[in-house]
Amino acid sequence: MRNTSEPEKEPEKTTTDQADADVRAALQKSAGKTAVGKAAVAETARDAITAATGGWRAQIEAVVPSILFIVSLVITGEVNLSVIAPIGFSVLAILLRFIQKQDVTASFGGLIGVLVAAGLSLWSGQGKNYFVVGLWTSAIFAVVFLISMLVKRPIAGVIVNLLADKPEEESADDVPWFKDRVKFRKALLVTAVWVAMFILRLSVQLPLYLSGEEVALGIWRLALGIPVFIPVVLFSWVVLRSWVESARIKLS
Hints:
The protein has 12 helices and no strands.
């Protein structure tokens, strides 16, 4: 006789369910790579800074090329000569990491950024275009973050919710984060601070770009870079950490 006591097989996931899971996994991975996401899940303030900036070495690799370009431009007055030093430094940074058997992904990204900046300045013959990508980046992020606030889905909240093991919208026991007054205000506040940072950069640097003040533009680009970014990251960590601690967060 056929054994009827065999346990029933669990229903297999449908193609749609698997696709939804794959999309969510991809979104979680992307959210975890953002500065807001890295800061939110950090256990300490130092961890938040290190994760968001990549550590002291990554900061050096990000800042030094701009310094070299500015100094070279002041000394030579020639754009085509001024791009040599930052490119050389970025290549050297990759070689050093490779020799030390460290991950070179971030360094390669930095080299690409330097090559794009150098290419734009050489193509236009104007040193100010070495920094134009940063202006566009600040403008795009400011618009995206601001729109998220206007539609009442502050992007900081979207990121933290994506990092949860199970999104609160899918749990009958939880109120969606955007309907939770405390969480919504935290997300709104953090997002607003990021918008303020982007707008501050644009308000200072754009007039200098339009007026062709290349050296001043470069100096302010540095001044409004890491020195402003770190306090914003710390603020994000302070505001969001209580939310993160109460959520089921994927740290891997």
